[in-house]
Amino acid sequence: MTALHVTVWDETGGEGVPSVFAHNIFTWGSDEAYGFAAQRPLADNYRLLLADRRGYGGSPDTERSDFETDADDLVELLARQGGGAHLVGHGNGGLAAMLAAGRRPDLVRSLALIQPAAFSAAAGHPVVKAMLERVRDSAGVPDSVTPEQYLRASTEGLGMAMPEPSPERLRAVATSMRERPVWEAEVPLEPLRDAAWPTLVICGTWQDAPELYRTYAGEPLIACAEAVTDTVGARLLRVPGYYPHTQQPAAVNAALRELWGRVGVAEATRAMCS
Predict the structure, then answer these.
(1) Cα distance between residue 180 and residue 168, in whole Å
(2) Average pLDDT, stretch 21-43?
(3) CA 102 to CA 93: how far, in whole Å?
(4) Three-class DSSP labels, 153-193
(5) Three-state DSSP class for 50?
(6) Cα angle: 85, vertex 90, 94; to 5 degrees
């Protein structure tokens, strides 16, 4: 069993309800560029646990990052919280969060998904079908491509600024280059639909994103967000931009506070009536 590195932000003296975060590719939990650094203000009332997936941040190396293993790791982290935790996932981390929540819904107090890479939920959508055909016909990343070259092509090549290629960033990129493809995941949505806790889906509008990035990533992710929302009966929050929690942290943090606060009221009411 691999011990993940978890960054803990807590200004409550250990009294806050735990909230577990699972990050996307190219990043790690507390990363300011792509991770959850902008969610740190939530630590005034909650105990934030930012997990670094295997091969990212301070967690151990892995031969190949895999969403199934990530889900197992999240279940283990949730189980260590005693009464469960709120669960937040972005992108590939959102997929892992969905799998973890489906396996152990009893450990989840709420689920928040930021543009989850759950393509099986929208496999019949035209833009997702086109994306799946593109990636299945792709030859993959050649061995000669370095992490820095891959990072540059994935950012500047799509019209975005490239973050500083620090050793920590390049390690994250190298892990991302060999992640198990998320389109191989079959997400069981029924446990999420039938769960007692609420689900929030957050998605960017993508109208100001670089055209290639919007076409190849944005449109399929929007389709996934809408499909997951409809299937599990979630609330969908749309915010401007394409990286909701970093570009629109005030809106995202307010939505998380509302979600977690609503769950807290419901839990307190049940306790009073029991």
Answers:
(1) 20
(2) 98
(3) 14
(4) HHHHHHCCCCCCCCHHHHHHHHHHHCCCCHHHCCCCCHHHH
(5) strand
(6) 65
Q: 22 pairs with which residues across the strands?
A: 51, 89
What pTM value is reported for the model? 0.96
Range 6-273 classified under CATH 3.40.1190.20: no
- Is the dihedral angle over the CA atoms 238, 240, 246, 252 positive or is it negative? negative
Spatial separation of the C-alpha atoms in residues 235 and 76, rounded to whole Å: 27
Residues 6+ apart with CB under 8 A from 5: 29, 51, 52, 57, 58, 59
Residue 253's SS3 state is helix
Question: Could you tell me where the beta strands, DSSP code E, fall in the chain?
Answer: 6-9, 17-22, 46-51, 85-90, 108-114, 199-204, 235-239
From the number of C-beta atoms within 10 Å of its C-beta (0-12, 13-18, 19+), residue 116 rates as buried
Residue that the structure tokens 């401007």 belong to: 240
Q: Which residues lie across from 18 on neighbouring strands? A: 47
Query: Is pLDDT larger for residue 139 or for residue 140?
Result: 140
